[in-house]
Automatic annotation (TrEMBL):
PROSITE patterns per record: JMJC
UniProt cross-references to SUPFAM superfamilies, sorted A to Z: Clavaminate synthase-like
InterPro entries, A to Z: Cupin_8, JmjC_dom
Biological classification of the source: Bacteria, Pseudomonadati, Pseudomonadota, Gammaproteobacteria, Cellvibrionales
This protein's name: JmjC domain-containing protein
Length: 338
C-alpha cells in the first residue's frame, strides 16, 4: 500500500482580530490560518456551549424562513457524495425550520452512527438579520457575502470557489485540507453539471483514497496544506484553491465571508467555461488551436499595447467594461444563444 505524504501545515498569522485584519492577509495568494480571529464573538461563546444554547441564541435572529438541509441515512458514510454511477446522490435535500433542524441535531447527538444533518450555505443577512451586528469582521469596502453552515459530523469533498473566503469556526472543530489550483488534474474532479451543492467536486475519498483508480492523487498530496481549527479560529482560502472540509464534532457551526475583486456585473467565469465547452470543446483540433490563440490574445494576455492601433472611441468591448457595457454584452450574448 502506497504511503501518502502528510500535508504540510497551513501557515498561521499572528495579530489578527475580527476588528483588524491586515491587508496582506486579505490579498494573500496562499492560505492562512487566523488563530482566534472570532473568539470574542458572542456567537462563538454561546454556540459552543451546547446545541440548546446555540438554538436559543440563533432564535433571536431567525426570520422563520425555512433553511435548506441535507440528510443522509443513519449509519451511512459521513461524506455527502454521489451514488455509485454519479447519476444521483447519497443524501436527501429539503427545507425545514431552523429550530427543527437544531432539534434533530440534538436528538441524534449521542447516536453512535447518526444521519448526517447539514444546513448548507445560508445567507446570514436574509435568514438571520441582526446576527451580523454582534458578530462580524471588519473588511472595509469589500462588501462580502456572509453565510452560515450548521450540522454534525460530515465530509465535504474537495471543491473550489471563485471568491476569496474567510471561514470562521463558531462551534465544533473542522479540518481543512487545501490544494493549489494547479492540482486540478490530480484531484479527479467529477461532473460539472450535476453536483451535490453547485460546485464540481473531487471523486477521491480522502478517508480511504483508492490509488488504483486515482493514482495521481498521490501527487496532489505532495502539494496539500491542512489545518484543524477550533471555535474562534479561521482560515483564509484564496480564490480557486481546492478545499476539502471535514466537520469533526457532533455539532458544528461555520460562518464564512466570500468576496471577489471584480464587480458583480461582469458575471461568473463558470458561465464562460460552460459556454466554451458548448461552442469550442468538440471542434477539430486545428480549429481549437486557433481559438486558443484568440482567447490568449483577447482574454488571457490582453494588454493596452495590443489596442494602440484602434482609436480609443472605437474600441467597444475591447475597452474597459463598464456596467452598461456589461449589460449590453450579456443581452447580445443571450440573443446569439437563441
Amino acid at each position: 500500500m502506497t504511503e501518502l505524504p502528510a500535508p504540510k501545515a497551513i501557515r498561521a498569522v499572528e495579530g489578527c482580530s475580527a476588528s483588524a485584519i491586515p491587508d496582506h492577509v486579505l490579498q494573500s495568494r496562499e492560505p492562512l490560518v487566523l488563530k482566534g480571529l472570532v473568539k470574542t464573538w458572542p456567537a462563538t461563546a454561546l454556540c459552543s456551549e451546547s446545541i440548546s444554547s446555540a438554538a436559543t441564541y440563533l432564535a433571536k435572529f431567525w426570520t422563520q424562513l425555512p433553511v435548506t438541509a441535507y440528510v443522509s441515512e443513519p449509519g451511512s458514510e459521513t461524506r455527502l457524495f454521489y451514488n455509485e454511477d454519479c447519476t444521483g446522490f447519497n443524501f436527501r435535500r429539503g427545507t425545514a425550520p431552523l429550530h427543527q433542524v437544531l432539534q434533530k441535531l440534538s436528538e441524534h447527538s449521542s447516536d453512535a452512527e447518526p444521519p448526517v444533518i447539514y444546513v448548507g450555505s445560508t445567507m446570514v443577512d436574509k435568514f438571520l438579520p441582526g446576527f451580523r451586528a454582534d458578530n462580524d469582521l471588519a473588511l472595509g469596502d469589500l462588501q462580502p457575502l456572509m453565510s452560515m453552515w450548521i450540522g454534525n459530523k460530515s465530509r465535504i469533498s474537495a471543491h473550489y470557489d471563485f471568491p476569496d473566503n474567510i471561514a470562521c469556526v463558531v462551534a465544533g472543530r473542522r479540518r481543512f485540507t487545501l490544494f493549489p489550483p494547479d492540482q486540478l488534474s490530480n484531484l479527479y474532479i467529477g461532473p460539472v453539471d450535476r453536483t451535490p451543492a453547485g460546485q464540481a467536486i473531487s471523486l477521491v475519498d480522502f478517508s480511504a483514497p483508492d490509488l488504483t483508480h486515482f493514482p495521481r492523487f498521490a501527487e496532489a498530496m505532495k502539494h496539500a496544506q491542512a489545518a484543524e481549527l477550533e471555535p474562534g479560529d479561521a482560515v483564509f482560502i484564496p480564490s480557486m484553491w481546492w478545499h476539502h472540509v471535514e466537520s469533526l464534532s457532533n455539532f458544528n457551526i461555520l460562518v464564512n465571508y466570500w468576496w471577489t475583486s471584480s464587480p458583480d456585473y461582469l458575471g461568473a467565469p463558470s458561465a464562460a467555461l460552460m459556454h466554451a465547452m458548448l461552442a469550442l470543446r468538440d471542434l477539430p483540433a486545428h480549429q481549437k488551436a486557433i481559438w486558443a490563440q484568440l482567447f490568449d490574445h483577447y482574454v488571457f494576455n490582453s494588454d493596452q499595447q495590443s489596442l494602440d492601433h484602434i482609436p480609443e472611441a472605437g474600441r467597444g468591448v475591447l475597452s474597459n467594461i463598464s456596467k452598461e457595457m456589461a449589460a449590453w454584452m450579456r443581452s447580445d450574448l443571450i440573443n446569439k444563444l437563441k
